[in-house]
């Protein structure tokens, strides 16, 4: 520390600068316009209960992949993360590289939805969306891109309905939920999930937020805002920051029965790895997966560690299995400039070769 | 803090610039300028919090609040460091001095009965944000038992729960008597569960207090180890290093068996308590002849099961309709096909009697097809054909597509039927659509959108 340049006047100077940035930043924040959810034009194709299936307006002037791609997002956050801003949109990247992109928005479940099960989600809602797309495009099979928990749904769905899925892409998808570095999993091992669901009905989004933010509380609830002061003094950055901020705190409640099974079967009993997973009357075995799979994980993912994703390789029978490693985090994999330049084109290239 | 001290003067100028900047922005002057240095920052922040609150959208206000809160913590750090440096201390000594102060205040808090994260130095508040935010969230999840928090032993920031539990426990274990024995026992049980939750919550908070104190020692140790070339050279770098070290200590704690047990216990006890109070509320509602959670639950469960069965039935009906359409198209085609070409779609459909269609159906022997044959007999073929527009058959696609790469309605059926089908699916006013719309309005309209978008 003896080499440090710390001087009292330097500290004061820094804090004065911080003050100025903070005052400008807050002014910019207060002047910010309402934040939209997603940026790319889209059309509602199908709806059922609170679910909506959207089709994004295809890009003009690109050769279109004849097999449409369905993005299956997680229940725990909102899917507009994939289309958060004009220059940071996975959806836009896929469209521009010739994919015909659909996305399921699961909506916000309320207490009337608490008896919706994983079977209802996967063999019900998801299956009907796939059928709508197959019908619209006159194809037997579609491509599926599952993200995080949506990747788990996609794996289960594809293993049960392989006749309807041409190619499967999984992004930051937890398969082995008991790797030693999985903090989320570690926390739930001694939780009485039945007591939670019986007491709450649905799991409140606030509890999810609390959980996610407390995986790294100093970075996510402290440092981020100190660093933010530097960037929001430039008004151009305010809107982008607020989009992210809105998304982070936008966690829907979780339908009780689906949550009960998800945590017990996947996180506590690790059934995708250990076996014995059942959805309604259907037994799920990843060994049944023979279709082409592209498995993408993020090297610095604090929510879904890479090892949790990479476990997939040994569990499937696919002879066309590819892994793609992204040097970034769980969110950066959709929104960072690096991801736009590498991950999205890689997905499209992989899909185009197989469609 | 004397005005003649150069640090005090620098600091005051910085604060003044800060206040001026904020005051200009506020443009209100209503709050007045702070009169003393000690509360200058806090007053300025609060002034701005109030000034900005009325005009911001909720998300934005939330972000502004967080900026303010973190600003306060950051300033608390700057103030302490700057103060120590100005007294002539070397940077490392200045930081150590500050750390010792923080450690001392935490150790003092450790002796406070029922420590709940309150009273922590601004800078160390981040260490207690998990327990503080948990407390706030738990309060929103258990609105019905707020009264319980007011009981002796519940307000943990005032009372020592450990000392209260014994006498309270004895009181709560006293058997209920008389007509109101049962409700009394339930209330006693509720209080007992609330006490158990508070104990779990306190154990969680105490563990954070210990780990936060350890993290200060860890930070000091890290500073001693850091390569001189990599030493923080600014307040921000020092803050970032503090975040890094704190996050490491926190992660180690969060991945321990101890955390797993403490957190699990706290969550479980909160839920058990919440469920118990919900049951008490249910009893109360039942007594008032009002619907309660248990009854609504039963209805929701039955409803969901019915919806599931309904979806299966709809799919089966749709499959049967498609099969019928397929079978109709497979009957001896030569004359029909030529007449179909010549005749309008409606007459072609009429030309296919239901009986013929049923006889021609090889699937009639299967269980699924049996009711179809019956329904085909009951309904004129033309009606059946009308009721199978392309949009409706989307639901049946799974079964059909296994046999045919392209949906049967558009491939296997005779030209006339196809024409008819397509025409009807795009014609919004077709009778079949009206019928289907009545049966499933939401889905139907969605499918119509699909047709529009195709």
Please describe what this structure looks like:
The complex is a heterodimer of chains A (355) and B (454). Chain A has an 8-stranded mixed beta sheet, with helices on both faces. Chain A has a two-stranded antiparallel ribbon with strand order 4-5. A two-stranded antiparallel sheet of chain A has the order 9-10. Chain A is built from 15 helices and 12 strands. In chain A, strand 7 (142-147), helix 4 (149-160) and strand 8 (165-171) form a beta-alpha-beta unit. Helices cover 46% and strands 16% of the residues of chain A. Chain A is globular and about 70 Å long. By secondary structure, chain B is mainly alpha-helical. Chain B has helices at 6-26, 40-53, 58-86, 91-109, 129-141, 146-149, 161-173, 181-225, 235-254, 257-287, 293-330, 334-342, 345-350, 354-360, 369-378, 381-386, 390-393, 397-403, 408-411, 415-426, 431-439, 441-453. Chain B is extended and about 100 Å long. The model of chain B is unreliable at 25-38, 155-161 and 336-454 (pLDDT under 50). Chains A and B meet through helix 1, strand 1, helix 3, helix 5 and helix 6 of A and helix 1, helix 3, helix 4, helix 5 and helix 9 of B.
């Amino acid at each position: 520390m003896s080499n440090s340049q710390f001087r009292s006047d330097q500290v004061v100077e820094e804090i004065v600068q911080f003050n100025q940035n903070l005052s400008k930043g807050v002014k910019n924040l207060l002047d910010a316009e309402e934040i939209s959810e997603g940026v790319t034009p889209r059309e509602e194709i199908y709806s059922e209960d609170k679910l909506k299936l959207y089709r994004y307006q295809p890009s003009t002037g690109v050769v279109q992949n004849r097999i449409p791609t369905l993005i299956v997002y997680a229940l725990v956050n909102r899917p507009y993360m994939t289309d958060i801003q004009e220059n940071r949109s996975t959806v836009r990247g896929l469209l521009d590289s010739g994919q015909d992109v659909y996305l399921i928005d699961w909506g916000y479940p309320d207490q009337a939805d608490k008896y919706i099960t994983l079977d209802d989600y996967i063999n019900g809602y998801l299956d009907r969306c796939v059928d709508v797309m197959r019908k619209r495009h006159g194809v037997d099979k579609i491509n599926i891109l599952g993200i995080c928990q949506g990747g788990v749904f996609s794996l289960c769905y594809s293993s049960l309905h392989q006749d309807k899925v041409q190619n499967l892409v999984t992004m930051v998808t937890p398969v082995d939920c008991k790797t030693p570095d999985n903090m989320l999993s570690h926390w739930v091992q001694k939780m009485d999930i039945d007591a939670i669901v019986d007491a709450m009905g649905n799991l409140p989004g606030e509890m999810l937020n609390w959980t996610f933010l407390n995986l790294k509380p100093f970075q996510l609830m402290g440092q981020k805002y100190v660093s933010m002061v530097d960037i929001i003094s430039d008004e151009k950055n305010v809107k982008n920051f607020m989009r992210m901020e809105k998304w982070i705190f936008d966690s829907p409640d979780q339908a009780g029965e689906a949550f009960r099974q998800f945590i017990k079967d996947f996180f506590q009993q690790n059934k995708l790895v250990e076996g014995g997973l059942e959805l309604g009357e259907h037994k799920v075995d990843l060994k049944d997966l023979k279709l082409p799979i592209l498995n993408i994980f993020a090297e610095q993912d604090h929510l879904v560690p890479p090892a949790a994703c990479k476990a997939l390789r040994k569990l499937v029978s696919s002879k066309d299995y590819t892994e793609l490693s992204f040097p970034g985090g769980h969110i950066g994999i959709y929104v960072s400039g690096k991801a736009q330049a590498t991950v999205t084109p890689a997905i499209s290239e992989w899909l185009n070769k197989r469609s | 803090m004397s005005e003649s001290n150069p640090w005090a003067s620098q600091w005051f100028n910085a604060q003044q610039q800060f206040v001026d900047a904020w005051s200009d922005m506020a443009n209100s002057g209503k709050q007045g300028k702070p009169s003393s240095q000690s509360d200058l920052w806090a007053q300025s922040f609060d002034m701005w919090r109030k000034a900005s609150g009325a005009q911001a959208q909720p998300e934005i206000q939330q972000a502004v609040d967080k900026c303010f809160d973190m600003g306060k913590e950051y300033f608390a750090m700057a103030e302490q460091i700057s103060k120590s440096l100005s007294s002539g201390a070397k940077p490392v000594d200045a930081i150590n001095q500050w750390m010792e102060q923080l450690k001392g205040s935490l150790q003092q808090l450790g002796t406070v009965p029922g420590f709940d994260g309150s009273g922590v130095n601004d800078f160390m508040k981040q260490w207690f944000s998990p327990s503080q935010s948990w407390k706030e969230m738990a309060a929103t999840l258990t609105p019905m038992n707020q009264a319980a928090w007011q009981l002796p032993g519940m307000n943990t920031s005032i009372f020592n729960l450990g000392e209260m539990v014994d006498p309270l426990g004895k009181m709560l274990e006293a058997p209920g008597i008389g007509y109101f024995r049962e409700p009394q026992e339930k209330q006693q049980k509720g209080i007992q569960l609330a006490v158990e939750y508070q104990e779990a919550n306190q154990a969680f908070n105490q563990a954070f207090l210990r780990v936060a104190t350890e993290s200060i020692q860890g930070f000091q140790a890290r500073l001693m180890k850091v390569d001189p070339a990599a030493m923080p050279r600014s307040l921000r770098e020092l803050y970032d290093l503090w975040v890094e070290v704190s996050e490491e200590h926190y992660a180690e704690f969060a991945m321990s068996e101890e955390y797993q047990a403490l957190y699990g216990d706290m969550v479980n006890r909160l839920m058990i308590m919440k469920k118990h109070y919900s049951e008490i509320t249910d009893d109360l509602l039942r007594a008032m002849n009002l619907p309660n959670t248990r009854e609504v639950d039963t209805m929701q469960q039955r409803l969901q099961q019915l919806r599931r069965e309904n979806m299966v039935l709809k799919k089966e009906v749709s499959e049967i309709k498609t099969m019928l359409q397929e079978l109709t198209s497979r009957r001896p085609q030569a004359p029909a096909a030529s007449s179909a070409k010549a005749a309008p779609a409606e007459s072609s459909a009429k030309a296919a009697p239901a009986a013929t269609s049923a006889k021609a159906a090889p699937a009639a022997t299967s269980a699924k097809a049996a009711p179809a044959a019956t329904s085909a007999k009951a309904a004129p073929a033309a009606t059946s054909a009308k009721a199978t527009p392309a949009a409706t058959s989307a639901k049946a696609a799974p079964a059909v597509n296994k046999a045919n790469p392209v949906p049967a309605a558009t491939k296997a059926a005779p030209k006339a039927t196809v024409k008819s089908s397509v025409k009807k699916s795009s014609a919004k006013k077709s009778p079949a659509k009206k019928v289907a719309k009545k049966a499933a309005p939401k889905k139907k309209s969605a499918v119509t959108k699909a047709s529009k978008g195709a």
